[in-house]
User: Fold this.
Amino acid sequence: MKKYAMTIGGRSVNASDHFEVLNPANGEVVGLAPKTTAADVDRAVAAARAAFPAWSAKPSAERAAACNAMADALKANAEELAQLLTREQGKPLSGLGSRFELGGAEGWTRYTASIDLPVEVIQHDDNAWIEVHHKPVGVVGSITPWNWPLMIAIWHVVPAIRAGNCVVLKPSPYTPLSTLRMGEILAAVLPPGVLNIVSDGPEAGPAMTSHPGIGKISFTGSTATGRKVMSSAAETLKRLTLELGGNDAGIVLPGCDPAKIAEGLFWGAFINNGQTCAALKRLYVHDSLYDATCEALVAFAKTVPVGDGLDEKNLLGPIQNRMQFDKVSGMVDAARAAGARILTGGVAPNGPGFFYPITLIADATEGMDIVDREQFGPALPIIRYSNVEDAIARANASENGLGGSIWSSDPKQARALASRLESGTAWINKHGDIRPDVPFGGVKASGIGVEFARQGLEENTVIQVIHQ
Ligand code: NAD
Assistant:
């Protein structure tokens, strides 16, 4: 069985101990990941710190060129990485799956290469010389989840490197192999120590969040872990970007045509099997088109093939891990027991793998876990409402505030209502459309700070004012 290695200081570093990474489609071992210790984290941080003076002193154009070289390396190795990603994550090669994720990773890298943070001049005259400089923080620690492991690693790593930082990256224990391999490929086009990739192990995450040699943590994961990260980082006063859980609401207004919006609603909710932070997780539909919307969604769901992601005809794969499978199936069972109607799905097939069918749940209400908490899986509760003001209030009655959407045939009304959603992004007639040139982040318990665009790049810097 292939043993994967860490990359520290430009060299491949083997661990003394390893753990198995399983294919969620069939339970087979995909490979062995190194078990990272606190001492490994120390070594990676030391390598990053050693590389920092030269890397941060490079002209911006040279760092932009290095980011473009990373994008070229991603492109050249995309198929190998996509295959490995499908085998350990479960998402299909096709559709909005692994190849799509690799394409996104390359696109984000190229766009990030193209942005810059020039010196801002406040005053340049005989009375004063005042400039604002954006300087790198030093070492950025990146901690990533298992749902979009490569894309999210790129979202952390590339802006950090572009801004002049050096990085230590730690993937999730569920999907470390594709990140270890991608890291090896990317580190090879950078000076040694600029990008270091460790793996998981009980000590690894806490060792990073408390490490005095790390100046900032970019964390994407659950709200519960985000709280631990913030608390652990407090002692050393680290900068933080926290991209946490979501429970995004979509509101379908009277006057919509259910047949026209069904596909957008479906993929807004079921992209990556619902295992997406800013997926649509609660759908509020007006009484006047409730039944028609349910019917249109069921009809669309029946056209989507689910199965092993290595089979190119499939558009959705298994749930990624046992814990998540149990959570989703438990929430669906509880909703059914509480009186919700399962329109399609709701019963897992026998056989290997964590397969769970596309599940649409009518007559769902607040008070059911599947509405109140983030399900993070292929099950969508559809909630009936009769008053738009009431729907907005119910959408906002959540500790989360990542995304939200308004579905309407009246653009002016849609924009007015979108601005009243308590969410980092409010989409209109779509859900989850993210772009590298548009800042993205959560409010309330969905996070702190933003990623992407100039604003995301700025979060990888500290400000220094030169004042004469
Ligand atoms: P998780 O919180 O369980 O794990 C995330 C990462 O944190 C993993 O690498 C894990 O090993 C690490 N970790 C665990 N305990 C730690 C500790 N004490 N200190 C430091 N690191 C620790 O999340 P997950 O299950 O991998 O991912 C799913 C969650 O991520 C969902 O809630 C989803 O909404 C969220 N998410 C958010 C965004 C966003 O942009 N807001 C994007 C993707 C996923």
Notes: The chain has a mean pLDDT of 98. The chain is about 40% helix and 20% strand. The domain at 248-428 is CATH 3.40.309.10 (Aldehyde Dehydrogenase; Chain A, domain 2).
